[in-house]
Amino acid sequence: SAVISQKPSRDICQRGTSLTIQCQVDSQVTMMFWYRQQPGQSLTLIATANQGSEATYESGFVIDKFPISRPNLTFSTLTVSNMSPEDSSIYLCSVEEDSTDTQYFGPGTRLTVL
Amino acid sequence: AQSVAQPEDQVNVAEGNPLTVKCTYSVSGNPYLFWYVQYPNRGLQFLLKYITGDNLVKGSYGFEAEFNKSQTSFHLKKPSALVSDSALYFCAVRDGVDYGQNFVFGPGTRLSVLP
Lengths: 114, 115
Known about the structure:
The complex is a heterodimer of chains A (114) and B (115). Chain A is mainly β and 114 residues long. Chain A is 0% helix and 52% strand. Chain A is built from no helices and eleven strands. In chain A, the strands form two sheets. In chain A, strands 2, 4, 5, 6, 9, 10 and 11 form a seven-stranded mixed beta sheet that branches. In chain A, strands 1-3-8-7 form a four-stranded antiparallel beta sheet, with no helix packed on it. Chain A is globular. Chain A starts with a strand and ends with a strand. In chain B, a hairpin with a 5-residue loop joins strand 7 (56-58) and strand 8 (64-68). The termini of chain B are far apart. Chain B has no helices and twelve strands. Chain A binds chain B through residues 1, 4, 33, 40-43, 45, 48, 92, 94, 101-108, 110, and chain B through 32, 34, 36, 41-46, 49, 51, 88, 90, 92, 94, 96, 102-103, 105-108, 110.
């Protein structure tokens, strides 16, 4: 299965600033995803990031707030822009292995906005 | 559109007893079904999946799940629970026919195994 790393693992940020989260996978994958999760709650899909095309955002999420880059088949970034306390959450990167139809998840980034 | 229900927010079981975490689903096409586990301060770990074939699938850490098409269920089971199984469990479904549909995750069930 794919091995996924995320950086940073956690951060505490000030209101109005931006944070970029990095996601690195150890194999080439077509589909990468970014999720948000409140502690103990279910996952909410933010966007799908496929290499070579613009990210596809889910309802309630916009590119200006959550810009995503996908420069190659092993890497993606999610930026949380102009943060407010409501953005405090866990952000998870996942990949779908092309051969197994299965999503695998990174360890997550715990973000606290003061 | 697909959906997933996990009817129990919390399941408590004594160590050594069998455990069941319930999941029901709705999907238009063929269901691809998954179970994930999340330990505190960790990402989701894949446990097992059903794509096709035998209705009883076996996965990591001694877990298994049974696909029941008539009841649209995919309950997670383990014959003998361990305290270390205590975690948050998520069921997920995707449409195996319409690949334009994303994964849909259930609300999660917190499993507590009591010593």
